[in-house]
Amino acid sequence: MNKLARGLTTAAIASALIIAPAAAANATYVPGTGNPTAPATVVAGQTITVTFPAGTFAPNEDVRFVLTGENAENATLAGTVSIVKAADAAGGLTVSVTLPAGAEGTYTLVGVGTESGATASASFSVAAADSAAAPGGLANTGSDSAAAFWFAGGLLALGATTVVTLNVVRRNRAQA
C-alpha cells in the first residue's frame, strides 16, 4: 500500500471516529409509554388537554385524577377538581383541564390507577391571562433538524482528509 492510500485510509478512519460518537449523542430521544404530554405553558382561563399514552395505566381501569396548584380549587376537570375516568383498552386516556381566569404558577395533574396503583403526572406553568406570554411558551430559536450537525461534521471530515492528504503529498515530494 503506497503512502497516499495509507494516508487517505487513516484520514477516513479518523473522520469516522470523530463523527460516530457525536452522531450517537445527537440521537433523538423517544419517550417510552407512560409519559403524559401537556403544554409547557398555558394562559389562565384556557382549557388544555393532557394526554396519558397507551400503557400508562392498566387497560380499561378507572383512574383518579387530582389537580394541584395555587387556586386549583377553582380549576375544573369536567366540572370538579378531581375526577375518575376509565382508561381505554390500551391503558391510555386524555383529560381536559379548564383553568380559572386568576390561575398563576405551576399546576400538576396526577393520575393514579385504582386497580394497578400506576401513577403518572403532568406539570405545566400558567401565565396570567393579561400577560404577553404566548400560549405555546418560549419562542423556538433553534432547529430540530440535524442537517447543521451533519454539515459541520462533513466539513470537519473534509478538513482532516485534506490535512492528511497534503501531509502525505509533501512527504512524497520530499523523498523524491
TrEMBL record:
First and last residue of the signal peptide: 1-24
Lineage top rank: taxon: Bacteria
Alphabetically ordered keywords of this record: Membrane, Signal, Transmembrane, Transmembrane helix
Membrane-spanning residues: 148-169
Record protein name field: Uncharacterized protein
Provenance organism: Arenivirga flava
